[in-house]
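Hello,

Our lab assistant flagged a job as stuck in the queue for most of the afternoon. It eventually completed. Since we weren't sure the result was trustworthy after the delay, we are filing this so someone can double-check. Below is the sequence as submitted and the structure that was eventually returned. Let us know if re-running is recommended.
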Amino acid sequence: MNRPDLIRFLALPLLAAAAIPAVAQPPAVTPTQSAPPAGQVVLPPPMAVMPPPVPLPALSQAQDDWANEWLKSGMAEGLMARSKPTAPMHGQQLLNALLDRGRALSTGRVDTADFLEVWALRPAAFDPRPSLAKAIAEDRLPQWAASLTPPYSGYDGLRKGLATYEKIRDTGGWPSLSAGASADVVRARLALEDKSVTGTEPLTAALQRAQRRYGLNPTGLLDARTLTALNVSVDDRIAAIMANMERWRWMPRELPVNRVQVNIAAAVLTVFQGDEPVTSMRAVTGSPTNQTPMLSSNIHSIVVNPPWNVPMSIARKELFPKGRATLAKQGYKIVKTPEGGERIVQPAGPNSALGRLKFDFNNPFAVYLHDTPSRGKFSSYDRLASHGCIRLEKPVSLAELMVASDPSLSGQIQNLIDTNKTQRVSLPSQVAVYLLYWTAFASSNGTMNFRADPYDWDKLLAQKIEASSRRVDPTAVNSTAPAAKD
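-- returned structure --
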């Protein structure tokens, strides 16, 4: 299908209602009224009556049998690393198990109350009871179950990958490699994850494929980083797959077809148009000590030649200790605040930490996309180095895509920069933006790709999935191991 030359971004909603900050309501105003006459009884206002829950029909014997069998699939969906044989459930116990599994597959096993604050990508609320009642009444339980999981190839690829890595684990996993391992030993190790490895191809070619799957520099050499990636245990790879399947369950069932998407872990930004990737660029994302949050929002404007109002956390830790003379020499300004304190501002210009462009979107973390005068990191394979914002390799190109539908702005971004004036440009249409954390994903041929887990979120999330399953799922083994199996 041919693409139009100009990419038109549509104004689209955020990921899900749960991710949209609540609109502030005005304070309640108590009406002024005279006191009731003496002796008159004043009744309180009526309480809001919640509708009763949708009743669930009784299961037929065939539905009962099917449901008990289906509940054994929790491990295949990444909801637990181990399952246990259970006695058949019946009646309300079985219905409760179906409701719980429906919620877990639709919006995630981990309750949002147990999220980290920076996991701000929250699933929409979902009540499986009405759809389950309808499915039982219409005898369509398999169709109901199939509708619960995320409708994305990314999720399906992880589900298939999980089965592959569980087989590897169940047959003994893989040995730890040393730097001096023979070519045959290295080739055998690579073949466990890459079925295209042959005994006749050069080892460098097989190593390059592995390095690309791990997001490493494809040197074809068994260097330290490649060795580290190959020696990640199969249990940890399974934990990563489980964690990423859970993150897919936090996504809405329908994404805007036009969007900007950042993979925080891989430090890559991708632009989607018509639900297809049309361009991508390298990025620099938050360091492990300054984590970029997962969230969704809309880019509403671009600031051309932005000054940098240095956050106080950075000012106190990194800039004020340098002393006023040094800061003045480096071009910073110290200004008074209305409260009588001081803050640091870096004026707009070629040396500003924000570069020449800043892309603004509402979020509670004060993060944004921006240009940078420091270009060296973009040639590196280790690009997690910011204070939490996302630095862009090609900010002008991204800005031009966003304003392409406005004749007065199209092709004018560089001209606006060249004026050296600070100005805010409102976009013709707001652009959906998603900051996501993908550390495991499948290629089109089913081969799994992994990225490092710089924030240590995978193991933590896998442990939370396991703990949540043990609390509520009768088919889960009471085990503390996040990715282990007898």
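-- support follow-up --
The delay was a queue issue, not a problem with the job. The result is valid. Residues 52 and 129 are 12 Å apart (CA to CA). The first helix runs from residue 61 to 70.
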